[in-house]
Amino acid sequence: MNEAVTVADVTQVYVTEQQATLAIQQMNFVIRRGEFVSLIGPSGCGKTTMLSIIAGLIAPTVGTVKVAGELVSGPSPRVGYMLQQDYLFPWRTILDNASIGLELQGSLTGEKKQAVLHLLDEMGLLRFKDYYPSQLSGGMRQRVALVRTLATDPEILLLDEPFSALDYRTKLQLEDLVIDTLRAKQKTALLVTHDISEAIAMSDRIFVLAPNPGRIHKEFVIPEEIRAPLPFEAREKPGFHTLFRDIWQEFGGDADE
Ligand SMILES: Nc1ncnc2c1ncn2[C@@H]1O[C@H](COP(=O)(O)OP(=O)(O)OP(=O)(O)O)[C@@H](O)[C@H]1O
């Protein structure tokens, strides 16, 4: 099974007392195992809705989603979710925050706790394991959130603007750390971002979405000449800015020129 995520004919309509909103219309795509794919597009084009459907948090009005060949019918340990905010519990230590997913699953064995400590070590956080979130910087807290997401060993990670609240330097460092970690662990990831450069630097493929109704407008495969071991290096490749401009135009970037 090479397909990590299969989205088939997904349509999502939100109905409120005032109106019905066609948030997503007939979306179809496949993410292969180990791939890093980004969803970019203007506000309201259905990016978060798509992640919520893949995560099993909402059932699509029409269509199906499979994760590793299994129909998604609710939240599953196969899928990990990382958000813009770290949502760490202030009264729990870093180790206890990082372990909470395992604890909630009732699977926090001694062996798993060692694995969490190992992940904290990989993220440069081991010496802070007994600290509380308020004692850490925003970038460090987001690294704890990444450890918490990886601790349950999900097959696919859904990343909803996880770098957008960070300062620029921290954001670039964390992008490198995430890619390095996910590639080493051969994880599949779907990133939602408003940052075209970030999407190009991190992804294998990019879907540009369009709004009203939310749909896939265009797919970009990142060419070999732009790929690099780490996103920071990809930003320096010749061809990076040409691709940026191509995507910007599809984004409607030149609409007011
Ligand atoms: N719970 C809801 N009830 C009603 N309408 C909703 C709900 N959630 C989202 N929508 C609508 O569905 C559309 C898609 O929203 P969604 O949040 O998925 O877009 P997005 O691309 O993630 O936007 P942003 O970039 O601003 O986060 C929007 O028109 C939004 O107003």
TrEMBL record:
SUPFAM superfamilies: P-loop containing nucleoside triphosphate hydrolases (SSF52540). Keywords: ATP-binding, Nucleotide-binding, Transport. InterPro entries: AAA+_ATPase, ABC_transporter-like_ATP-bd, ABC_transporter-like_CS, ABC_transporter_ATP-bind, P-loop_NTPase. It holds the Pfam family ABC_tran. GO terms for molecular function: ATP binding; ATP hydrolysis activity. Residues 5-238 form the ABC transporter domain. PANTHER family: ABC TRANSPORTER ATP-BINDING PROTEIN (PTHR42788:SF21), TAURINE IMPORT ATP-BINDING PROTEIN-RELATED (PTHR42788). This is ABC transporter ATP-binding protein. It comes from Paenibacillus sedimenti.
